[in-house]
Amino acid sequence: MKGVVVTSPGSTWSLVNDLERPKPGKGQVLVRSLVTGINPMDELMRTTGLLVKEWPMVLGCDSLGEIIEVGEEATKFMVGDGVFGCTRLGFKGYGTFQEFHLMDEELAFIRPLNISVEEAATVGVGLLTAAICLAEGNHISFPSAPAKGRDDEEWFIVLGGTSSVGQYAIKLAKHCGYKVLASCSPASSTIVLAAGADETFDYKLSEIRQLNEMWSWTLGKFAGVFDASAANINVGLNAFREFSTASRKTFSTTNDWNTIPTSPEESIEIYRVHLGELGRYGEVKGDEINRAVKKYIPVLEDLLANGYIVPVEGEVAAVGFEQIQNGVEALGKGRSGKKVLHPASTHTMLTSRNTGPVDEKLHAYKAKNIMVVTPCIIPLSTRRHCQAPVMMYSRSVTFSLSLLVSSCFALPFGGQIVGRDTALSRSYDFVVVGGGTSGLAVANRLSENRAYISSYNCIDYRSWRAVSVLNIFEQHELMMISDQGEDSIYIPLYASLYSGAAGTKYDWNLTYTPNPAANNRSIPIPIGKVVGGSSCLNRMVFDRAGKVDYDRWKQLGDDNPGWDELYPYFIKFDNFTPPTPEVVKNWGIPTDPSAHGFHGKNSTFRAPVEYFYLVNNGCSLADRILENWFAAMKQLGVRMVYDSLNGDANGALWNPISMDATTKTRSNSRTAYWDSATNRSNLHLLTGQQVTKLLTKSSYGGVSISGVEYAVSANSSKSTVLAKKEVILAAGAIHSPQLLQLSGIGDSSLLKSFGIKTVVDLPGVGANFQDHANIRTSNSISISLSVTNLTTNATYYAEQLALYRTNRTGPFSTEGTNAFAFIPTPSFTNNTSAILKSASSITPASYLPSNIDPTILAGYELQYKILLQDLLSPQMPIMEFIWTDGSILPIIQHPFSRGSVKITSTNPFIPPAANPEFLSHPTDLLLMSAAVQYTRKVIQTPAIASLSPVETFPGPAVQTEQQIQEYIRNNVGTTYHPSGSTSVMKREWGGVVDTDFRVYGVRNLRVVDAGTFPLIQSAHLQVTVYAMAERAADAIKKTYGL
User: Fold this and answer.
1) Is the dihedral of CA 115, 121, 122, 125 positive or negative?
2) How far is CA 465 from CA 13, 405, 408, 719, 988, in A?
3) For the chain, what percent of residues have pLDDT higher than 90?
4) Minimal CB count within 10 Å: which of 168, 970, 973, 998?
5) Are 91 and 51 within 8 A, CB to CB?
6) Would you identify the CATH topology of the domain 127-280?
7) pLDDT single digits (tens) 571-613
8) For residue 445, which of 658, 601, 566, 668 has the smallest C-alpha distance?
9) Helix ranges (DSSP H) in 7-134
10) What is the rounded distance in angstroms from the CA atom of residue 950 to the CA atom of residue 956?
């Protein structure tokens, strides 16, 4: 028979064809060699002669094959069975580098149906070595089903986690409920984490730094260490000596040759595995290892058959006995965690009762004319690369978790939304917490450049890395809240007619905490709980503040972004449809082409946000009341803005809306950034989960985030996903600070009151909270047709909705709010001296709570100077007015009031206390009162008076300053613009993130949402959020060279 022999120690591998076929004796079986796992012991035995009984010798010990003959008294197997395991080392007839070899029946595994040929070849030496060390050396019992976790959260340490022995040790320890810390090189950490390790550390660090890493993760809560590398004895023993809190300390190792210096008083139990003595009956070490292998093989067979232990990944380095040397050399070069396999030939299918239903030609056994063609016949190691339907698709959930994978050993699901976490990788390069306006934008941009994204093991596994988006949200239904394209989200007019999806299951349905200045009312604050976030709930206004507004941010830090820094990103995500010549002529809506983007940066990618000017599209209104508005503004001396997106937003203006110009449906973050990326296998979106905590790590280099913890509900079990590079918080201005605080990052006094250990004392987390307060004024007007007709005439409603569904025309094809005015204080009130006096007489120190942190006070003092300088400036809009069918909505743009976001419980499913403290600063109340009085001036202009207006709110009875202020206190509301709670400012000014959105004091954590705005701008938020997200994505790419 054919085989490869070594004639003497140090001689080369020699292919021969005249080897004698072995004959099985008592308790033995003869095996046809199909695949051999290459082991370091093979080369060691060739070069040194270790364990070799006589020369010449056929080596090889990691076997996978098919039984062709059974010896006497062998009862476990029968001819045709697939078997694998470790053979005797150094005995003639047992080497696997030949066509047929012997195995001791009691020392062999039967191959389960769920384990492929290639996978089984990775098991023998690796799993046996790990299992015996953990069981015999560390006194660990293997349960028949996975343990749920140890109550004491005890760690088990594996030194050398990359090898097959190390990976199997990790898998076994996790099966037993331990948290696992493993050493490996940084390049191999993804493979080790995928094997199940909770954390890793670099074995190349100095011993002191390795011990520091071990301490920072375990805090001494470990009793067992396994040295799988045979080279880390001192590190393992010194970890016990320095900080293990265990009363019984066990150390096992594959090193059975070096002296291990210990003293009796240390009480460290040492175990060395002697797998090389396997099969040496009648010898002390041989009998010991034989008993252990015989004892644990049935246990391990069950774990493999039930899928509780999954084989490590293998890699075929060469095929055929003549290529044995190539396989051994491949092992010597290192394969980063992959077991090097060597098939005896290209034939790898078995023909046994336990190997599957088909032969190598895909014919069903015991049938002559049936061919089975299905992914089920593909060996599991290959099947991982097949596309599989493993998720439920939905369009839902905000607070998403976005993940960029560095390697994945899970089933692939491309960019589709996943309603469960079973198919996720254990680790990703980036984890984005939040699948709303900013989160999807960041995730999209980080995953778009395939040339720089590497190693996603399911599809094109040598060239992909992946991003995943994890939706934080509380589950209320069987699976998850799922946007199914409902009218409330996608039909434009629904955004104003019925407040869109606000108040529905797609809304977090939060309220601001009672505010004394608003007569202790709890004001609802709609926030999107759907994929796409609040861009699915807002009024679709697509506007930017003016250049002077954004440039105020630079006064809070020279490196802060201003107009010039944000402008390229405003253009980048635009896909602008300009008004038609007819609309320009009839309505006087000019555009500045330089203010818009038309194709986006990547011409192959549907630009993220589509918008256009749409005026009563096909709606035959008899009265063009928008003309009345602009005429009224002109009569009051308010300037008309040429194009509000070119940096000049000071005056009366038309604003675009975020809508698809073709389909006449809402354009949001989901349609822009998610739908265009669903074909990316490196972008994962997990819904139906809520992130409950950031996993912080304090070690030699400072504080870092290793990943996130998440769960379905407060009472459900928690899962974790790891981030190899960064975690990006994009959960919004309310939930991002809540998550930071729950994770020990925030004001230490607040954290202490809830018993949370302070990881980073950052008082600015949750401070500086702002929102645009509004107050509605209404008038009935005399027009023949308005939105009211849709709500009072069911027939007309049905006709117009049918018109929209059929032709995409009529009133339902537009949101309905296009006419705005952003006006400086002198333009809407003559009471400027009283307003300025109010603002000047109040100091920041007297306004903020007396116990406020000095850094927050310092930051607010800087903001206060800016607010004072702009209060009476003719260039800075202070109040926004929106006109709709007789109603005018004043909205204060630059409030002096400041609130906060603070946790109220350590339970992440209990909302935090969020309150922008509307009207708590008296100047804001004076400005709002002046704005209400200004709306009456607007109504009295000839342009509006021609519509025969009759005031309904506040009503004729509300006339005095006191009465108007009381009306405001009773009715002030939010414009859905929470911001500022994690500001981009210097840390000494109460800032939370730097200009690259990195959280102060943490190495790899960023916040990218409206919470980073240091001063709320005079514009609706979504466009600025998109721009900041695009800018943040570029900053992250620059950091990692993507």
Assistant:
1) positive
2) 40, 5, 9, 22, 37
3) 54
4) 970
5) no
6) Rossmann fold (3.40.50)
7) 998 888 887 777 777 777 778 888 888 764 322 222 234 433 3
8) 601
9) 40-48, 117-120, 124-132
10) 9
pLDDT at 423: 55
Task: State both tokens at 577.
Answer: 């449809």
Q: Give me the amino acid identity at 435.
A: G
**Which residue reads 């709709």 in tokens?**
884
Are 35 and 348 in contact, with CB atoms under 8 Å apart? yes
pLDDT beyond 60 at 822: yes
Q: What is the mean pLDDT of residues 54-78?
A: 91
**Which of 68, 67, 58 lies closest to 95 in space, CA to CA?**
58
Residue type, 256: D
Q: Where are the domains of the chain?
A: 3-116+312-343, 127-280, 487-676+769-1040
Question: How confident is the model over 863-873, as pLDDT tens digits?
Answer: 999 999 999 99
The whole-angstrom separation of Cα 593 and Cα 901 is 40
How would residue 675 be classed by pLDDT, with cut points 50, 70 and 90? Answer: confident
Task: List the one residue out of 885, 878, 896, 898 whose CA is nearest residue 1019.
Answer: 878
408, containing H or E segment:
none
Phi-psi sector, 10: left (phi>0), alpha (psi -120 to 50), beta: left
pTM: 0.64
CA distance 1016 to 894: 7
Please state, rounded to an integer, the average pLDDT across all residues of the chain: 83
Residue 413 DSSP class: -
Query: Which residues, at least 6 apart from 544, have a Cβ–Cβ distance to it below 8 Å?
Result: 570, 644, 645, 647, 649, 1019, 1023, 1024
- Beta strands 524-525; 62-70: pairing state: unpaired
Q: Please report where in the chains the tokens 């600070």 appear, as a residue.
A: 737
Q: What is the pLDDT of residues 625-646, one digit of tens each?
A: 888 999 999 999 999 998 999 9
Say which amino acid occupies 371.
M
Q: CA–CA distance from 137 to each of 141, 223, 249, 254 (Å)?
A: 11, 12, 10, 11
Q: How far apart are CA 718 and CA 838, in angstroms?
A: 51
DSSP string, 902-925: E-S-S-TTSPPEEE--TT-SHHHH
Q: Report how far apart the first and last C-alpha atoms of the chain are (Å, whole number).
A: 54
Contact partners, residue 709, CB within 8 Å, separation at least 6: 691, 692, 693, 694, 695, 718, 719, 720
**Which CATH superfamily groups domain 3-116+312-343?**
Medium-chain alcohol dehydrogenases, catalytic domain (3.90.180.10)
- Residue range 86-113: mean pLDDT, rounded: 91
Superfamily of domain 487-676+769-1040: Glucose Oxidase, domain 3 (3.30.560.10)
- Phi/psi at 729 (5° precision): -85, 120
C-alpha angle with apex 515: 713 to 1024, nearest 5 degrees?
70
* CA distance linking residue 814 with residue 808, whole number of Å: 10
Residue, of 511 and 465, whose pLDDT is higher: 511
Domain 487-676+769-1040 in the same topology as domain 3-116+312-343: no
Is the pLDDT reported for residue 165 higher than 90? yes
SS (H, E, C) 623-673: CCHHHHHHHHHHHCCCCECCCCCCCCCCEEEECCEEECCCCCCECCHHHHH
